[in-house]
Amino acid sequence: MKSIRNKKGLALVAGTLLVLVFLFFKTFPEIIVRIPSPEYESVRRLYRWLLLFGSGFLLCQGIALWVLPKTGQWLFPLTVIALGVFYMFVLPPFSAPDEAVHFTSAYRLSSQLMGKPAVADDEFLSQASEEEKKRISRGANVLVRRGDDEIEFYTEVGKNAYNQVFTGLFSMDKSQGLTVRYETPVNTMPLVYLPQAVGISLARLFHWGYVPLIYMGRLMNLVCFAAMAFLAVRIMPFKKELFMTISCLPMTLHLAASFSYDTAFIGLSMIFLAWCFYLAYEKKEVTVRDTVILGLLLVLLEPGKIVYLPVAGICLLIPASKFSTKKRYWISVITVASVMLLAVFLVNRLVLSVWATETEGYVSWNEAAGYTLQDVWNCPYEIFQMYYETLVTQLDYHLTTMVGGYLGNLDSSLSVPFFCILILWYGLFVSVIRREGETAPMTGGQKVWVLILVFLSVCLVLASMLLGWTPREMTYITGVQGRYFIPLLPLVLLVLFDKRLSTSLDLRKSAWYLECFVSIYALIRICSSAVLRY
Prior knowledge:
By secondary structure, the chain is an all-alpha fold. It has helices spanning 2-25, 28-33, 41-66, 75-90, 99-114, 122-127, 130-137, 159-168, 194-205, 210-235, 240-247, 250-256, 262-281, 288-301, 326-357, 373-378, 380-403, 418-432, 444-469, 489-494, 508-530, and strands at 143-145, 178-180, 361-363, 368-370, 434-435, 502-503. It is globular, with a radius of gyration of 24 Å.
């Protein structure tokens, strides 16, 4: 039986490689000819390398899954890093959502770690140019090396962006003095920018140029995410493959291979959920150390993204009987909840006070009136209608962008084909369906509780964009992106892990391989069109 599965797996590998040969290798000469040379010779190399290394990656993945007798536990994090590197180069700097803002925030933390001036002070302002004063007046104040504020990457993904990357990939820093970036940094927990800041600091210590500095920060973020995802998989007592599948979604990898702080929240949420399920369904007795770790994870996760605050209720799945006494159980619950809420208040007190006292909303991107909390209290039916219209008109968009239907900064021209979206959702379904011999530990009541928590978090996500991004003229809530729901995705899918829904087939390897194939196929497809446009 194992030999038959291996043959079917190798046949799948051969089939996917033939698809790449038929669709891309066949048209390779035509595309290469249309890329001007020698000025864009590096772009030609990028496309050539992507075809070769992408196909080679899939071949190695197939060998590891169906030929080697034992692949080992390191295949998963290595796969995340390898795929992330592909995303890192096909989608160049600042093409991820809000990446420039996150880069600026990480740069500020890097300066603080290195003991260098991080923000513009009065002395800098006295010698600043008119352009720098204009940036500071708009709220930008992060100091960077002169030259690290170039805006050339603020173009759509195309041959010019690729050429800039490969031209400066091994450049050294020759800047003189400091200047101010033009983005306003994000004021949140510094920990979510620590990996990126470490990467930037290393590049600055070695006096690397602007492009290698960016890529070093991206790489450290990717490696840190791979480590967090690997840890979550190790801790999770059942359905470990669910976290593996979510970690390899195109949108997850795109964020992990950028400066986005969403990477940290996705990784922390997976570790938190894995730890909760470990304590609830596997560990025999919950100790003080276990409770401290739980509280620490909540302190790291919740203050930066208060929209996920209801998810903390997953802790209540841990039975009181696993504590030595009822008294210790209630002490643990009250202590963890108090510390978490205190951290949330300290980090978000300014935002919360503004929301509580604001009487007139303003949406800067549209220069129009917006909503306030008073509108929510005074016009609940109108708000309900907006929620309903958002569900009816935007659900398919949210589901598509959650897995990676539109990459780049939600660029419709960098889309993943519909059949790839179906494969990704198939992989997610396979990762949670019960196989014969598995025991589904969650009861019906616990699943209802999980769905209630997810519903409350979704409502908070929509509320945050209603108050901060939606003009009054709109009939639905704008600015909501599918990536906001990735931390909630494991909880929704685990509800399907039920004894009444099972299969005798083990499709895990093939589903995961197909998910990796989707990434390679989508990136080659995106690159094949991007190299032909400026």
